[in-house]
Write a structure and sequence with these properties.
It contains 15 helices and 26 strands. The mean pLDDT is 93.
Length: 551
């Protein structure tokens, strides 16, 4: 078994809660889809279960699919193992003779139990809404609710879904003023995950006709939330690992974020995967106090080595990044990586340094944007501002850019960018400039135009006497200067990782910049952050990206 298969296994055998020669019932972890959102990921539960059974039994299994659960919901999912039993299962489901019991944790539910009846509209833009009874698009939804436990305003509910509509329990409880805790779509009650669990399924066995009940224990996260106690690190880490399964098993990408602070319910901690190594960043005093426990838990995942970075509390606080107390040059667990390590994104090689200060040479949250740049660059002239070590330039070259210009004030970073481009095997018209981006743009406005300009400035920077701060309003004039060098019908990829600059504000700044640059905006397209960078509950991702097309 390869290391990546061991670190991101298809399935833990303990997740099988019932199995015979006719059916198998699995306790699905939260974060695992029951149908493939993208076929190339091959990370859905049926695919993972097939691989698990094939490895266990030495033969390709048959799986009949009759049930689905939302990705964020955990609990029982039944599959058939023989084609001849499909009809018996299907008839029971269609006849509503299969009883499914769920458990949900909520705030604000009144009474001890009642039956919820609503009419639910069709799925629209990822959401389902309660619609009037006369709305022909709607379907009747019925859920029987009983209270299993209470702690103040919090309640643990037992649900029987009489009907099986999309997002049924989530929508109905939200409509009753008691949304499920951790529901990012329909609720505002924070929790480490969506606290909805399919606890049991009861039906007649498709062969013998005998009653069959399969149960999946309620995850500990429910108990911790009800008791208002912190979830153990090991459980949060296991859930994050399930969420990153597709990346962990990817054939062409081996660098990604495993833990994204509060977005993965591990406050003050981020963990990045670089091939066989981890880089752990600690952001607050509590995380630093627990560093040994955190490092020990990560060490058990089986990576070759772990590097540590202690981050300043404020992004605009300057520290000595090469201080061994802040960023040790050697791993704090395991063995060292090569001084210059090759990692891969979508098959492209990039060089990183894990023990060289706080930064590694690549920002992993820009992985999907680099893929977009690669797709847009064929035959284009590309300008990469604040290029750092030039990962965007490598992506543009891979996409077939006819010319690239990379600008950064730091000579060592630009020199690493030149070396990285050569290492990736790209030659041609690639120009590297060591200069402040503002100064370069001011001097370039009457010269060359570019079909694609990449603008990804730091939130704060100081070059000589020149200071840049997104918070102080410097982004708009910078974006205007960048738009001035965009060719007709060209694109600006504008990014900001300033946490207080929300997506709507970035759009407004870009519209203002276009007016200042006297450029007409044809289209602005919001670009989603990659899935391995989930934001904390109720907040936007820290990276905001917008692709602007100019007339």
């Amino acid at each position: 078994m390869s290391d990546r298969h061991a670190r991101f296994p298809d399935l833990d055998a303990s997740r099988i809660v019932f199995e015979d020669d006719a059916v198998i019932v699995v306790d699905k972890p939260a974060g695992v889809p029951t149908q493939a959102a993208r076929p190339e990921d091959d990370d859905d539960l049926p695919a993972r279960l097939r691989r698990f059974l094939a490895a266990r039994d030495g033969a390709e299994p048959y799986l009949g699919i009759h049930q689905r659960l939302d990705r964020a919901t955990s609990g029982v999912v039944l599959y058939t193992k023989r084609k001849d039993v499909n009809r018996a299962i299907a008839e029971q489901l269609e006849g509503r003779r299969v009883h499914k019991r769920y458990v949900a944790a909520v705030e604000g539910f009144r009474g001890e139990g009642r039956t919820l009846r609503h009419r639910l509209g069709p799925l629209d833009s990822g959401l389902v809404h309660v619609v009037p009874a006369r709305d022909r698009r709607g379907q009747d939804a019925e859920t029987i609710v009983n209270v299993r436990a209470r702690n103040g305003a919090r309640a643990l509910l037992e649900l029987e879904l009489v009907t099986g509509r999309t997002h049924q329990a989530r929508v109905q409880l939200a409509a009753e003023g008691a949304p499920i805790a951790g529901d990012r779509l329909y609720g505002k009650t924070e929790a480490p995950r969506l606290l909805l669990h399919a606890e049991s399924i009861t039906l007649a066995h498709p062969v013998t006709g005998a009653p069959l009940t399969a149960r999946a224990p309620v995850p500990p996260a429910f108990e911790h939330w009800m008791g208002q106690t912190a979830e153990p690190l090991a459980e949060a880490l296991e859930r994050a690992r399930e969420e990153r399964y597709a990346l962990g098993r990817s054939r062409d990408t081996d660098a990604f974020r495993l833990v994204n602070e509060g977005g993965d319910a591990i406050e003050g901690v981020s963990v990045d995967v670089y091939g066989d190594h981890l880089v752990v960043s600690l952001y607050d005093d509590r995380a630093v106090e627990n560093r040994e426990a955190i490092l020990d838990a990560l060490d058990r995942l089986g990576f070759a080595g772990t590097y540590l970075k202690l981050r300043p509390k404020q992004a605009n606080v300057l520290v000595d990044a090469r201080n061994e107390q802040i960023a040790p040059s050697l791993p704090v667990r395991g063995v060292a990586a090569p001084a210059e390590l090759e990692i891969h994104e979508h098959g492209l090689p990039y060089l990183v340094r894990l023990g060289d200060g706080l930064s590694t040479g690549i920002f992993l949250d820009q992985r999907d944007n680099r893929r977009r740049v690669r797709e847009l660059s064929r035959g284009k002239r590309v300008l990469n501002l604040f290029a750092y070590t030039c990962p965007f330039t490598i992506a543009a070259a891979a996409g077939g850019a006819v010319r690239t210009v990379s600008v950064d004030a730091a000579r060592p970073a630009i020199e690493r960018g030149e070396r990285g481009l050569a290492h990736a095997g790209f030659t041609g018209d690639h120009h590297f400039v060591v200069e402040d981006a503002f100064a370069w743009l001011s001097a370039s406005r009457k010269r060359e135009r570019f079909d694609l300009v990449i603008l990804d400035p730091p939130s704060y920077s100081t070059v000589g006497k020149q200071r840049f701060s997104t918070a102080s309003g410097d982004y708009r004039p910078l974006a205007a200067a960048a738009m001035a060098v965009v060719a007709p019908n060209g694109y600006l990829l504008a990014c900001s990782n300033h946490r207080q600059t929300v997506q709507a504000k970035l759009r407004r700044l870009l519209h203002e910049a276009a007016r200042e640059a006297k450029r007409e905006v044809v289209q602005m397209k919001d670009l989603p952050a990659p899935p391995d960078f989930p934001p904390p509950f109720g907040r936007e991702p820290h990276l905001k990206s917008i692709l602007v097309r100019l007339a």
